[in-house]
Amino acid sequence: MLRAPDHAHRARRHIPTVLAAGLGASLASVFLFGKLSEEVLERESLALDTEVIARARAMNSPTADRIFSLLTATGEPWALGAAGSLVVLRWRAEARAADAVVFALALLGGGAANQILKLVFRRDRPPLQLRRAHASSYSFPSGHAMTTLATYGTLAYLVSRRGGLTGHPAARLIWAPILLFCGLVGWSRIYLEVHYPTDVLGAWAAGTVWVTTCGIARNFMEPEEQ
Q1: Please, which contacts does 87-94 make with residues 24 or more away whose CB atoms are closer than 8 Å?
Q2: pLDDT truncated to tens, each residue of the chain (226 aa)?
Q3: Burial 38-71, CB ≥16 within 10 A → b, else e
Q4: pTM of the predicted model, to two decimals?
Q5: Which residues contact 176 (CB under 8 A, 6 or more apart)?
């Protein structure tokens, strides 16, 4: 019994290493994806982007414009920050400090990694005449797609993890709507023609690694709900 605190303390000491490794893995995975895309930009990658954008353009309608504009707004930094703040405040009030910290790291770390990758690749966005929404900064990887997956994917993990610990396995069902929502946000960026499809694919690759990293970091912490 006396060893438990020491064990928990030693485990928590590994958290910075886990987060640093996860951030490195996120950057490396999307860097590799980006380099592969760059190598074939004149061939397969460009053909993929062109074909998918053409299919998205075929869906064009006033109703679709409104729907996907609303979806893309949910991936804006202010929207993610507002939603994230509410979750963090709720969990802190419920004495779920570890979950709150990990969720905040998911949001902030995902955004930081995205900005680093944009500066590395400096890929221009689709031609201005194709865009149907305002966009700034570089194109690869998509910030909306990456931070949405990093934030809400980590939320789904933390909710389903707690559900398993507290005898509510149905909490795992949260994954389906979360992943569908993240997929629609990514597609909205392609539909509005502010990103190439490969921008979104690269964002999902990095976002997935960051969600995994945050999950591993949470498991190094002492689960206060047990």
Answers
A1: 87/155
A2: 334 444 444 445 545 665 565 556 656 665 666 565 555 444 556 667 777 777 777 777 888 888 989 999 999 999 999 999 999 999 988 888 888 988 998 999 889 988 888 887 788 887 755 555 666 778 888 999 999 999 999 999 999 888 877 778 788 889 999 999 999 999 999 888 888 888 888 888 888 888 888 888 887 776 555 4
A3: eeeeeeebeebbeebbeebeeeeeeeeeeebeeb
A4: 0.77
A5: none
Residue 9 tokens read as 């303390």
Domains, the chain, ordered by start: 3-220 (1.20.144)
Question: Residue type for 121, please?
Answer: F
- Can you say whether residue 167 is alpha, beta or left, with left for phi > 0 and alpha for psi between -120 and 50 degrees? left
Are the C-beta atoms of residues 148 and 205 closer than 8 Å to each other? no
* Six-digit token string for 223: 């689960």
Neighbours of 222 (CB within 10 A): 13
Between the CA of residue 175 and those of 11, 56, 116, 183, what are the distances in Å? 27, 26, 28, 12
Neighbours of 143 (CB within 10 A): 26
Angle at 216 between CA 213 and CA 217, to 5 degrees: 85
